[in-house]
């Protein structure tokens, strides 16, 4: 008799097949973990380590300056029985720009970052204890959508730096889980403390905070709030409120978040629609359209990764799923501010992969 990991996905049905491997790498943000007291069946595959992740290539033009961005993010998942999981994700991204920004040969370098390397212990049906380096659970974007093979638009929201200083990751401890679960709703929580670190590729800020949300499975609606206290240099409070809604029987996905900190406040609203359920030829049912609008207003001069002036931006994306694990991505955005307006173009592809490190045990 041993409890097994149980994962309940909060995603539109049309995208579940393409994203199931990625969900495992996101620290259970999209998941509710519970224990099932069942006997291990004879055909159980065993606890097999897995390599997952994504690879991609993005051609970006921002204000007339082109950038080439090949990238690969391997994710390692190593289970130790049914209660302990070691997981990590490393980001390898290259940035190449022309020598004179718009002319000349391309030059650049490859950057490597450890996004997370953590041990998760499923203590019981309500508590998962995490130790190591983890993604800061602030708002929706960092944990749920920062992986490039998941997010619908390749550029992060303007307010993304709020609550994710200094690197988007924390080094320390975290508790998370499902506080209560009922047929009509469930409530999840997260609490964490991160120490300051200047170690190469493991940088983090000293901070403490938490996140909680309530999810209504019948309507597929979630509302949540995050709080963080940054505890070095100037102590800063940051707050985020967010909603996520995938209306039943549709392929519509609506996300919205508002963020506030000492350096500024802003919001973003994103709507995505997959043509899967439209009465159109099968070729077009793999098409997804995306729209995002966002506004940011600096406070106390802005900074710390945020604009110094009022900024508005609108984005439109067109993605096409060649397969469940391979998609073509493209987007156009227009940024408006007193420092100048700019057009932002993105085009490329993303590929999601997953394979075991060794074969499952034979029957």
Give the gist of this structure.
The chain has two helices and 16 strands.
Structure, described:
This protein is mainly β and 363 residues long. The chain has one domain: Porin (Beta Barrel). The chain has helices spanning 13-24, 141-145, and strands spanning 50-62, 65-80, 84-98, 106-122, 128-135, 169-181, 186-195, 207-216, 221-230, 236-245, 252-261, 264-274, 287-298, 311-323, 326-337, 342-356. The protein has a 16-stranded antiparallel barrel with strand order 1-2-3-4-5-6-7-8-9-10-11-12-13-14-15-16. Strand 8 and strand 9 (221-230) form a beta hairpin. The radius of gyration is 21 Å and the shape is globular. The model is unreliable at 1-38 (pLDDT under 50).
Secondary-structure map with pairings?
Layout lengths: L12 H12 L25 E13 L2 E16 L3 E15 L7 E17 L5 E8 L5 H5 L23 E13 L4 E10 L11 E10 L4 E10 L5 E10 L6 E10 L2 E11 L12 E12 L12 E13 L2 E12 L4 E15 L7
Antiparallel strand pairs: 1-2, 1-16, 2-3, 3-4, 4-5, 5-6, 6-7, 7-8, 8-9, 9-10, 10-11, 11-12, 12-13, 13-14, 14-15, 15-16
């Amino acid at each position: 008799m041993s409890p097994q990991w149980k994962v309940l996905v909060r995603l539109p049905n049309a995208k579940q097949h393409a994203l199931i491997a990625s969900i495992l790498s996101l620290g259970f943000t999209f998941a509710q973990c519970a224990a099932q007291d069942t006997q291990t069946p004879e055909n159980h595959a065993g606890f097999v380590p897995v390599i997952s992740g994504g690879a991609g290539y993005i051609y970006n033009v921002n204000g007339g300056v082109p950038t080439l961005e090949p990238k690969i993010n391997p994710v390692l998942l190593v289970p130790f029985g049914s209660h302990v999981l070691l997981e990590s994700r490393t980001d390898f991204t290259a940035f190449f720009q022309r020598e004179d920004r718009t002319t000349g040969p391309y030059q650049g370098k490859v950057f490597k970052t450890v996004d997370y390397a953590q041990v998760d212990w499923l203590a019981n049906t309500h508590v998962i204890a995490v130790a190591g380096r983890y993604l800061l659970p602030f708002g929706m974007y960092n944990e749920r959508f920062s992986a490039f093979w998941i997010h619908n638009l390749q550029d992060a929201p303007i307010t993304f730096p709020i609550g994710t200083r200094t690197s988007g990751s924390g080094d320390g401890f975290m508790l998370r889980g499902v506080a209560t679960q009922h047929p009509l709703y469930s409530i999840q929580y997260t609490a964490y403390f991160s120490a300051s670190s200047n170690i190469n590729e493991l940088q983090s800020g000293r901070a403490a905070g938490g996140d909680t949300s309530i999810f209504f499975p019948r309507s597929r609606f979630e509302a949540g709030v995050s709080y963080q206290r940054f505890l070095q240099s100037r102590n800063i409070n940051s707050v985020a409120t967010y909603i996520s809604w995938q209306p039943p029987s549709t392929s519509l996905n609506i996300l919205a978040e508002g963020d506030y900190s000492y350096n500024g406040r802003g919001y973003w609203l994103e709507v995505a629609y997959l043509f899967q359920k439209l009465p159109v030829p099968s070729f077009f049912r793999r098409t997804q359209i995306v729209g995002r609008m966002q506004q940011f207003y600096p406070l106390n001069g802005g900074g710390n990764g945020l604009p110094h002036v009022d900024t508005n931006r609108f984005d439109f994306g067109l993605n096409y799923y060649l397969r469940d694990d391979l998609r073509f991505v493209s987007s156009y955005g227009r940024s408006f501010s007193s420092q100048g307006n700019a057009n932002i173009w993105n085009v490329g592809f993303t590929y999601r992969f997953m394979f075991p490190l060794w074969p499952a045990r034979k029957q």
